[in-house]
Amino acid sequence: MGLFSNKISREEVKPGDHIYSWRTAYVYAHHGSLSLTHFPLYVSIILSNVSLYAGIYVGDNKVIHFTRGGGRQTETGTFLDKLVVSSSPNYPQCLVCKDHSSFNGDKVITSCLDCFLAGGNLYLFKYNVSRSSFLAKPRGGTCTLAPSDPPEDVLVRANFQLHMDGWFGDYDVTENNCEDFAIYCKTGLLVCKKNRFGTSGQVNAAAAASLALALHACGLSMLGVGVYCYGRVASDVSRNGDVIKVPAKKLVSILESDRTSPREGWLSIAGPKFRGE
C-alpha cells in the first residue's frame, strides 16, 4: 500500500479493518453528460467514479456493512445528487448473499468479500493520518484525521448492529450512509443531531466542492482550492462538534442486560437523530 493509494490485497486485510471499494458511477447534467474537463482537477477527481461502498471486515471472508433495501433510490433532492452517486452494481451475488440482501428497508447485513467488492478493487480506509496526508488525497472517503479504536471494539460495534436485526436508522446519502456506519464502528463517533451531514468524508468533500465550484465559476479558482481544503479539514469527524462517543463496553452491557432490549438500550445512548426527534 503506497502513500497515494489505499489499495491492498486480500492477504493484507485484517478483522476490524474499514474497507471500501469504488464502483463505476456516472454523473449527468439535466441535458446530456457532464464534461469534467471544465472543472479544476480536484473537482474532476471527485466527480469521476464517485460511488463508494464501505464496510467492516470481520474475518472469515465476511464484511458487515450498512445498505439500502427494496431497490429504493438515494437522491437527496439537493445539489449533492450531482456529486455523490450511489450505484447498485450489476454483479451476480452468491446464493448466501443473495438471500441476505432480499429485504425491504435499510439494514446492516453480512456479505462475503466477493459480493461486497462486486468486482471492484479492495481499499483500506486510513485513520489518524496527518493533515498533509489528508489533504494529499483530494477525494473524500479514503482517510480521516481521527484515530481508530482497537479492533476488538470495532468488531463489538459492528456485530451489535447486526444483532439488532441490522438496525442502524434510516439510510440517508448525506446524513447516515455506509461510510458513516464504518466510521462509527471504528471510532464510536456518531452525529447525534438531525439535519446535519454525517461523518462521511465523501459527502463532506462533495459539499466543500460545491462551494469551490461556485467560486471557480466566478473566476476565483485559487480561492476555491483554499475553501475546498479548509472545508474538508473542518468537516472531518475529528473536528465535528455534533458527535457523541459510544463506548464498546456500553454495548456489551446492553447485550448482557435483562432489563431492556438491545434496540431500546441503543436508542437511549444514540442521540435524537436515531430516535427521530
Which secondary structure elements does this structure contain, and how are they paired or packed?
Elements: E1 18-23, H1 41-47, E2 51-59, E3 62-67, H2 95-100, E4 107-112, H3 113-117, E5 123-124, H4 131-136, H5 151-163, H6 178-187, E6 189-191, H7 201-217, H8 221-235, E7 243-245, H9 248-256, H10 262-270, H11 272-275
Antiparallel strand pairs: 1-2, 1-5, 2-3, 3-4, 6-7
Helix pairs in contact: 5-6, 5-9, 7-8
Domain LRAT: 43-194
InterPro entries: LRAT_dom
Protein name: (rape) hypothetical protein
Can you give keywords for this protein?
277 residues, single chain, two-stranded antiparallel sheet, 13% strand, alpha+beta
Account of the 3D structure:
This protein is an alpha+beta fold and 277 residues long. The protein has one domain. The chain is 36% helix and 13% strand. The strands form 2 sheets. A 5-stranded antiparallel beta sheet has the order 4-3-2-1-5. The chain has a two-stranded antiparallel sheet with strand order 6-7. A hairpin with a 2-residue loop joins strand 2 and strand 3. Helix 5 crosses helix 9 (248-256) and helix 7 runs antiparallel to helix 8 (221-235). The N and C termini lie far apart (43 Å). Mean pLDDT is 75; it is low at 26-39 and 71-88. InterPro entries: LRAT_dom (IPR007053).
